[in-house]
Amino acid sequence: MTTRSAVLAGVGGWVPPRVVTNADLSAGLDTSDEWIRSRTGIVQRHLVDPGTSTSDLAVEAARRALDCAGTPAVDAVVVATMTPDRSCPATAPEVASRLGLTGVAAYDVGAVCTGFVYALATAAGLIATDLADRVLVIGADALSAVTNPADRTTAVVLADGAGAVVLRAGAPDEPGALGPFDLGSDGEGSDLIQVAAGGARQRLSGRPVDPAAHYFTMDGREVFRNAVLRMSASSRTVVRRAGWQLDEVDRIVSHQANIRILNALADDLDLARDRIVANIDRVGNTGAASIPLALADAAATGVLTPGDRVLLTAFGGGLTWGSTVLVWPQLPPTEHHEERAT
Ligand code: UT7
Fold this sequence. Notes:
Blueprint: E1 5-14, E2 19-21, H1 22-26, H2 33-40, E3 44-46, H3 54-69, E4 76-80, H4 92-98, E5 105-109, H5 115-128, E6 134-142, H6 152-155, E7 160-170, E8 181-185, E9 193-195, E10 216-218, H7 220-242, E11 251-254, H8 259-268, H9 280-283, H10 290-300, E12 309-316, E13 320-327
Parallel strand pairs: 4-5, 4-6, 11-12
Antiparallel strand pairs: 1-7, 2-3, 6-7, 8-13, 9-10, 12-13
């Protein structure tokens, strides 16, 4: 029996054009460029203008990934997001149709900032079980839709963007083949990151809801501590399952939540910090988009080169975490999507 693996065939990213600097935020919030840079590593972020939604970001990133893969056709579209256009239906079918892919399987994955890694795992499953030969996996979030502009702890970190990859069926030992996965969750921490209202518990209809309950809230310190612990343990698990040694990892592409978390993760894994792929300075925390956006950025700028052993690891609300590995393949050039730091 031959094993079909999911192999990376294309990558693309997109951020909306509007750049918001730390100085812009400091004008309306009790914060400073110095605090934001030193505590988070963020220098600027991109935010959508009114009227632009998650599906718009997803379509732009997906077009670039499909171009890079050299194919307009896939058998399934998976969108990881915590900011779907509507709570019902899922965003993926509309994204698929706007890409000319009406008819394919299309569904959303909700695992907050871990969503892209969960979505990769489900896509790899579709390929392994012959349900699909090609899958488009998108991470997209318009986190500004749930950001309380008056909350300085979240408004300075959350941002908007999308990233996408095309996976194709291939052999487990070829470059680009996704390796083992490690996925996990701990619902005991479900209050640590949440948008309290709008679901079935605090409904939009009926009793009045506190307007603040529609916003993203986070216990930053507790989340920080958990993020390092969980991503470190999950990273060790997939590296071991892949048969690699930790010091053979060339690049760590982790969820971009805070440069201090990325540095702490590298330290915990005993890896040099220069192995971290970081674009948080330019794009902030883009939720489910952050890993594919970082991949697209690093591919376009040559930070990821063919043959690199790459570790992907994420942590987010739920709580959820997940990791996988791959050897970076030779990909056609991808259109560069980001403006540089101001
Ligand atoms: O994407 C999903 C996963 N998310 C994460 O992994 C995020 C994890 N958490 C974090 O990145 C950090 O906890 C934050 C960036 C959210 C906050 O940084 P922190 O270093 O943990 O700050 P803190 O919450 O411990 O607050 C330290 C101080 C407080 O003041 P006092 O009580 O010491 O006087 C805060 O009120 O910094 C204050 N503070 C700010 N000051 C200026 C909090 N936010 C700001 C701000 N500007 N924007």
